[in-house]
Amino acid sequence: MNMHDKHGGLDEARKAADKLGIADATRHIFLCCDGDEAGCASRKQMKKSWEHLRKRLAKLGLRKRGGVFPSQSKCLDICKEGPIAVVYPDGVWYGHCTEEVLDLIIEEHLVGGKVVEEHVIVRNPLSPAPDA
Ligand code: FES
Fold it and tell me: Which of 76, 81, 97, 121 to probe ligand 1 with, by most ligand atoms within 8 A of CB?
């Protein structure tokens, strides 16, 4: 038994990941929705931004396989001028992610491939992933 086996298999998690299309996503956007911290924006704005992001991606057909995978995040540690979002693999961190700014990010960055410079806080695409 190796160290991974003692916690059981990962079949259920792998099925869930497959159902979500995670392996095929081209981008992953994390949006700070940390209502406990609520340091970067109000809870109300975080909720509105998340609902808007989710619905807009779905409406544009971007949540299907090969599209964009959105995740709510706990505090991303910036805690100012949010809601904060980060898009990977590009490693672009955005501020002021209201519904209007998210629309720009979706249309220009996620669809058009062009970073929305006026809302960028910092960029860091991190290192290339190791081979599996
Ligand atoms: S509460 Fe949003 S970045 Fe910290």
Answer: 76
